[in-house]
Amino acid sequence: MTRDEIRDWLKTGDESRLEELWLRADEVRRRNVGDEVHLRGLLEISNCCVRSCRYCGLRVENSEVGRYRMTEEEIMACAHQAVAFGYGTVVLQAGEDYGISRDWMAGVIRRIKGETPLAVTLSLGERSDEEFAAWRDAGADRYLLRFETSNRVLYDAIHPPLPGRHSDRFALFHTLKELGFEIGSGIMIGIPGQTYDDLAADIEIFQILDFDMIGVGPFIPHPATPLGRAEGAPITLAGEQVPNSEAMTYRVMALTRMVCPRANIPATSALATLNLAQGRELGLMRGGNVLMPNLTPQQYRAQYEIYPAKACIDETAHQCRSCMAGRINAIGRTVGSGRGDSPRRKRAA
């Protein structure tokens, strides 16, 4: 699919064409990754962050959030809970927290791999090559790092770099690939200043880099941030600003499935935040094949507030698991078994 074709799909107002897109994306999903929906147990291990991203509630300047960092024993208890729930993967996610040291994290990974059959996915921000290598050696299987937007000017406007450091996530993808990680990435939809050309370029990059997992979600700024207060938001020409809507998110999911037929694509919690009743189901019916039930202990969930009004923060891990399984079954799909490794990797092997 060319960039112009992608842009045309993003901008169309023809509902019959969109119904065609949903059906085509769902069929591509069915033929390439099947009807199983894999559950990844999400564990938000720290909300500490050194970065100043202009939309994120975890930004270092936000003094209103109570900071936490889970202990090794807390993490292990949740990992064992993931096994009991039948999950194949645990996702350890945090802000860019340098209190999570290379050696401490490596020790946690070794314990999870030694005590459980789980695949371990890390989402810990931009770290050094040495840290990535140590975590891979310890047994980590996957790394998630969203590039958010391929428009460098726009990226820099909303993600100020750390002093003396240049942020180059595409270079980090190369390092992660060389180390043998499965790589997940993704974007935000509707960033102030993001045009349809920008978004089409992002989807084209998915096609070129052929990630193992691709997560897309709407831009939802936290109110305690500059963009949440609409301070200094970039502007675009009339008619070219991408909306940060549920509907546009489905378009991007479907197009991503079309250009990356064997990628793992989650229906994200942000979709559920926009549409608690059906957001996840519609995401699964428009290209998705992964859900990420939350394992984070309840005393921490509300403090991991990247954006406001996150869905399901009052649920227990058990309630979350039961809810996800029910939603999957209700649309005629099945809960996946095993680790849910990248279908793209299986084909390459």
From TrEMBL:
Signal peptide: none annotated. One of its GO terms (molecular function) is 4 iron, 4 sulfur cluster binding. The keyword Iron-sulfur applies. The keyword DNA-binding does not apply. Residues 35-262 form the Radical SAM core domain. S-adenosyl-L-methionine binds at E148. Keywords: 4Fe-4S, Iron, Iron-sulfur, Metal-binding, S-adenosyl-L-methionine. [4Fe-4S] cluster binds at C49, C53, C56. Binds 1 [4Fe-4S] cluster. The cluster is coordinated with 3 cysteines and an exchangeable S-adenosyl-L-methionine. (3R)-3-methyl-D-ornithine binds at S123, R169. Its cofactor is [4Fe-4S] cluster. InterPro entries: Aldolase_TIM, Elp3/MiaA/NifB-like_rSAM, FeFe-hyd_HydE_rSAM, HydE/PylB-like, rSAM, rSAM_sf. Pfam families: Radical_SAM. NCBIfam families: rSAM_HydE. This is [FeFe] hydrogenase H-cluster radical SAM maturase HydE. It comes from Geobacter hydrogenophilus.
